[in-house]
Each structure stands twice: as structure tokens, then as C-alpha cells.
Amino acid sequence: KLFFTDYGNAAKVERCDMDGMNRTWIVDSKIEQPTALALDLINKYVYWLDIYLESVEVVDYQGRRRQTITKGRQIRHLCGLAVFENYLYTINSDDFSILRINRYNGTDAQALARLDDAKEIRVYQKRTHAAVRSHACEADPYGMPGGCSHVCLLSTSHKARTCRCRTGFILGSDGRSCK
User: Fold this and answer.
1) Is pLDDT of 11 > 90?
2) Which residues form a coiled coil (predicted)?
């Protein structure tokens, strides 16, 4: 799945399949300007910052069990969001400090370090990534991902895929080759 935020005409947090199909709103009320998103891949939770409502909130992948983690004026100055173990990590755009916040109750907010002009944060640790299993976009015997001549996108599951073409090409009737 692909998770993303939108604060155009109607602010929301959404998810869809990697090929863009099955687009679903998972949060569409009491949300104004969601600017950062982080996933807990293990427990299947979505965290986001809303800088207009000055809050950090969480829901499960279906949009249920919504909770506010923390709220207050300091939120409007945050950008970027990552989750690891018991904490959320974010950047304070006023002084570019990395903040660590307890993801269960919003306490233990602590500045860890400062980085010049930081706008985004990611945690790279083996435990934060799900194991990769066999999937429909693996290279075929000719080296083509999922048998697609240009781009292979996972679809409704790891066993299904959709082929797409680069700009200027159209997908052939076989659903795999680009012309």
C-alpha cells in the first residue's frame, strides 16, 4: 500500500495500492493541514502532523482507533515525521533540532541534536523494514520486472501487478509492452 496526505479542497489521509488503484480515505474529518506522515509497519498504524490544528495523531490502516498523541503550538513548527520503537522523531523548523516524542502519550519530548536546514527525517534500521517476500514485480528470465517492458507496480497484493509505461509511450494490448 501507498499512504499519503492531501490538504487541497478537502484535507485527508489516504491509502491506495502501489499502482494507484483502490484509493481510500482513511481520515477525512477533523483534519486541516496534514504535512507529514509516518508508518508503523509492524503494528499497522499511520501517524501524521497537522500543523493547522497543531496536533500529532494516529489511526490504524483502516482509519479506526484514532488518537491524539500530542497537541499544542509547538506542532506548527514541526516538519518531517518518523517512528521507531516507542518514539516519534521530527524536526523543529525554527532551530532545526531533532525532537523525540513518546508515541503513546506525547510526553518525554526531548531535543536530541541540531542539523542545518533539515526538513525531513528517516530512521534506517533493519527492524523498521518488513521482510521482502517473493512478489509479482520480480525480474523475469529476460531481466524485465514482472515481465513489464518499462515499469512494474504491485497491485492488490504481492502476487498481482500492473505494468505502466514511461512518458511518451502507451501500453500495448498485451498489458506488458510499451510502444
Assistant:
1) yes
2) none
| Three-class secondary structure of residue 13 per DSSP | strand
The rounded distance, in Å, linking the Cα atoms of 60 and 111 is: 27
Cα 72 from Cα 90, distance rounded (Å): 15
Q: How far is CA 44 from the centre of its chain?
A: 11
Task: Please tell me the predicted confidence (pLDDT) of residue 122.
Answer: 82
Q: What is the mean pLDDT of residues 44-59?
A: 94
Beta bridge partners of 98: 91, 113
Domains within the chain, CATH numbers bracketed: 2-128 (2.120.10.30), 131-178 (2.10.25.10)
Contacts of 40 (CB under 8 A, 6+ apart): 46, 47, 83
Global pTM reads: 0.81
What's the pLDDT score for residue 127? 63
